[in-house]
Task: structure prediction
Amino acid sequence: MEALHNRQQGTEARFTLGQDFAFRAGVRRARAFGLWVAERGGFAPDETAAYAQLMVDIVLERGTFLACLERADADLAARGIAMSRRELTKQGERLLHEALTRHAPQPRQSGRA
Result:
């Protein structure tokens, strides 16, 4: 019975770690996306960091990256910069992949041979 309980606790712990990792990767993507959009949009240096933080705030408040895409699309259009939604989406996907692979948890080495 104890073995079953330990297995259940291990499964729950892995699930929690996976959820935390996904959340952190989403925040990293939002920040990197904000920096990328600010660069493309010709934002002033002091605006760039604030815009990246705005993207993070949008993800945290709305819980979806789609809101970042909509905001970036509107902000770039307001600056007269034509960029397709597809291009924005592809960059968001690239940045998510980068966040997932760069910060992926490494498997623990067991002492067993």
